[in-house]
Design brief:
Length: 96
């Protein structure tokens, strides 16, 4: 698993093999996030238009989170590969 792109305090895109995972930060009293698996069309849009599509997707997730329930990854925070991916991303960013 690896972090592909990130907009701090907004969203993070990760890749796990051929699967993409999108983590959208949700505001309010306490910051939390919702992690979903991207569908083929969303991946195609990202590959064509870049990160602007992810800004729009984050808004959609925040405005209607229940619409993404079927794609929500409940075990995301407990997956050790996630913390390893974030650590590698931050190491890379600190040397760039």
């Amino acid at each position: 698993m690896e972090v592909v792109a990130q907009k701090p305090y907004c969203w993070t895109l990760l890749r796990d093999g051929s699967e993409y995972i999108f983590s959208a930060v949700q505001g309010g009293r306490a910051m939390t996030s919702r992690e979903i698996t991207l569908i083929t069309r969303e991946i195609q849009l990202y590959e064509t238009y870049g990160e602007a599509i992810l800004d729009d997707l984050a808004k959609q997730v925040n405005q209607n989170p229940h619409a993404f329930n079927a794609r929500t990854i409940s075990s995301f925070r407990s997956d050790d590969r996630v913390s390893e991916a974030f650590a590698a991303w931050h190491r890379k960013k600190s040397t760039d």
